[in-house]
Design goal:
single chain; Rossmann fold; 4 domains; 7-stranded mixed beta sheet; 21 helices
Length: 649
């Protein structure tokens, strides 16, 4: 597999956005990188980890985003360049330390890469972390193409060292996961020695102990704001801010990030290049006031194009008010007047329609024959597909047992969940077992609260589920809270031996680190026992034992109980393409609709490896899809499905 270190300076390479960011960090001389995996950010650390030995780096998958930021900050305080990467929801987790970091500042160059997910393509929300830059008073840069993803990352380290503060580089899914041509620069050969200078009085200067203390905080806050003023001056001459258009266009478009590409395409689509001016800003906080004053003064109509919240729009309006008569009266178009939606991703078609409405032009339509052909093809369409677990996923078996145990208990028990592959437990694929679904660790936190409501009449059993990576990331504090306050809950840890949802990155429960190095594994069961919880372990593929164990725990119903359902993910590198069982279905035994099971295997269990043959009116096994977990043999009431142990099973 090609790495981000391959290629000569000046050579053009096709790089994914996250690869370009990693390359930029290497050209800048990054020494330490830390993150918690989260799509669409994960490939940054993965690419750096692949070359860690070659480039003499330290790279880790941290237990959560706050710790990752602290690990990177330690390197910066030791005068090394460091990077921390996360997705938008991770910035919320890191925010506690981020506030302190931004107020004290940094020593070695340090950047925080926030890869965000407009449209929630792989997230539970569309969080917009740009607000943190303004709220916590540190600079933010937004690359608009793949070349800038590399170059801005490199420049961000230099900016960080010039102002002595953390700098955010913000990407989005269409930047991080798309690919484009990038001209490579020189890889840094710098190998500075780490040195943490803690000597000297606590005066609030950048030397001495690193601390935010009441007696220095006023000085530090003032210094922080001076850094922002200095940054705004630097941003005035940034080569990454670009304007294309006449001196006095009919409409000024101000944009940033990948929206710049959408705007360029929309302008070309409408053929209005001579009527509009396009100002692309990479320096979106703080704004460069003189640059904006120049362009705002030359226009009385301005369209601000950005995804999600009107962050850029509102800040430009504040600046316009401050400039007053210098820029005159301006009509703004954007999210506030409803011209541009404040949810989901944008695209060139959306921008083209907005521009056409403002300028009174027609949006070019495709040929009628093409439109008719597309409509005819769409009418046939692909068969509907619901969200589902992969064939052989242990989570399907886990939810099957949980759902059935709760039904047999018959006290309206419910399950609290959170984010991971197991989030699909709220859908039919998980038998609609989950009844709450929020942030990582929130399932157990909510369960801890529900478990205290017995005195108020709540007599329903309370369960929570989490994955093994989530257990370390955010569940431990919630579990400690539940044990300490003696909540009546059952925590089910679905341990599939990796951070499966984002690409099987290691976590503290495994024996390997991000760089392939040996690591000390932490046993989840021992952690829970050490807290005082009663712990049991089952294989979720053993349906009878799992259900029986759950029923015993439901009957006990007192205090905190933990059930660890341990089975490696079917798609993990260790297990992929290896089947435990060869599955077969005897069509003579399968009675289909006349069985009395109501097609339990294909209508209820719904594993993609099981298919309903509409012609024969019987179930069948799709040998290509089947992962050979053997669970369907356990659920077939007629015994039509059998499992034979494979040679390596």
């Amino acid at each position: 597999m090609p790495t981000v270190t391959q290629g000569r300076p000046g050579e053009s390479r096709l790089l994914q956005g996250n690869e370009a960011i990693a390359r930029g960090a290497l050209e800048a001389g990054v020494r330490v990188a830390a993150a918690y995996p989260g799509t669409p950010s994960s490939e940054i650390i993965e690419n750096l980890a692949r070359v860690a030995e070659e480039r003499d780096l330290y790279v880790e998958w941290s237990i959560n985003e706050k710790v990752a930021l602290e690990v990177a900050a330690a390197a910066s305080f030791s005068e090394l360049r460091s990077l921390c990467a996360m997705k938008q929801v991770g910035v919320n987790v890191a925010a506690d330390f981020l506030l302190h970091l931004a107020q004290y500042g940094t020593r070695g160059g340090m950047i925080l890469v926030s890869c965000e997910d407009p449209g929630a393509l792989s997230s539970s929300n569309e969080g917009d972390s740009r607000q943190y830059a303004r709220m916590m008073e540190f600079p933010m840069l937004e690359p608009a193409d793949f070349q800038e993803a590399k170059d801005i990352t490199k420049w961000a380290f230099e900016l960080s060292e010039e102002i002595r503060n953390v700098v955010m580089v913000r990407s989005v899914t269409r930047m991080s996961h798309a690919s484009g041509k990038v001209v490579l620069g020189e890889l840094s050969e710098s190998r500075p020695e780490a040195r943490f200078n803690y000597e000297g009085p606590m005066t609030g200067q950048m030397e001495g102990p690193v601390a935010t203390m009441p007696n220095t905080i006023i000085y530090m806050h003032g210094r922080q704001q001076d850094k922002l003023k200095r940054t705004a001056e630097i941003f005035e001459d940034s080569p990454f801010n670009r304007y294309v258009g006449s001196e006095r266009p009919e409409l000024l478009i101000v944009t940033s990030s990948v929206c710049h590409l959408y705007c360029k395409e929309a302008v070309h689509m409408l053929g209005i290049g001579e009527r509009v001016g396009l100002l692309k800003l990479a320096t979106t906080w703080p704004l460069p006031p003189r640059l904006l004053e120049k362009h705002l003064a030359a226009n009385d109509r301005v369209l601000v194009v950005e995804e999600l919240l009107p962050f850029l729009e509102e800040n430009i309006k504040v600046l316009t008010a401050e400039l007053g008569e210098t820029v005159g009266n301006i009509k703004f178009y954007g999210k506030k007047d409803g011209s541009i939606p404040s949810v989901h991703e944008l695209n060139p078609d959306i921008i083209a329609k907005v521009l056409a409405d403002i300028l009174g032009v027609d949006v070019p339509m495709p040929p009628e024959a093409y439109t008719r052909e597309v409509k005819e093809a769409a009418a046939v369409g692909a068969p509907p597909r619901m969200n589902t677990f992969c064939p052989g996923c242990p989570h399907r078996a886990s939810f099957w047992s949980i759902h059935n145990a709760l039904a047999m208990d018959d006290r309206k028990g419910f399950v609290c969940g959170d984010i991971g592959c197991y989030s699909m437990g709220i859908f039919p694929a998980g038998f609609e077992t989950l009844k709450t679904l929020h942030a990582m660790g929130s399932g157990t936190g909510l369960a801890s609260g529900f478990g205290q409501l017995g005195p108020f009449g709540l007599n329903q059993p309370v369960l929570s589920v989490c994955g093994d990576s989530t257990f370390f990331h955010a569940v431990i504090p919630a579990l400690a809270n539940a044990v300490h306050h003696n909540s009546d809950i059952i925590l089910v840890v679905m341990d599939n031996s990796g951070t499966a949802m984002t690409g099987f990155q290691p976590h503290p429960g495994l024996t390997q680190g991000a760089m392939g190095n040996d690591a000390q594994a932490i046993d989840i069961g021992e952690v829970c026992r050490g807290m005082g919880a009663d712990v049991k372990v089952c294989d979720p593929f053993d349906l009878d034992r799992t259900r029986s164990t759950l029923l015993d725990m439901l009957e006990n119903g007192k205090g905190v109980q933990v059930l660890i359902l341990k089975q490696i993910c079917a798609l993990s590198p260790e297990k992929k393409s290896k089947k435990m069982f060869e599955m077969s279905l005897d069509p003579e035994i399968c009675l289909g609709d006349t069985c009395g099971c109501n097609r339990l295997c294909t209508r209820s269990f719904r594993c993609p490896g099981l298919v309903w043959d509409k012609i024969e009116k019987k179930a069948m096994i799709d040998e290509v899809m089947c992962a050979g977990c053997g669970v369907c043999a356990s659920i077939c009431p007629s015994g039509a499905i059998t499992a034979s142990v494979t040679e390596g099973g």
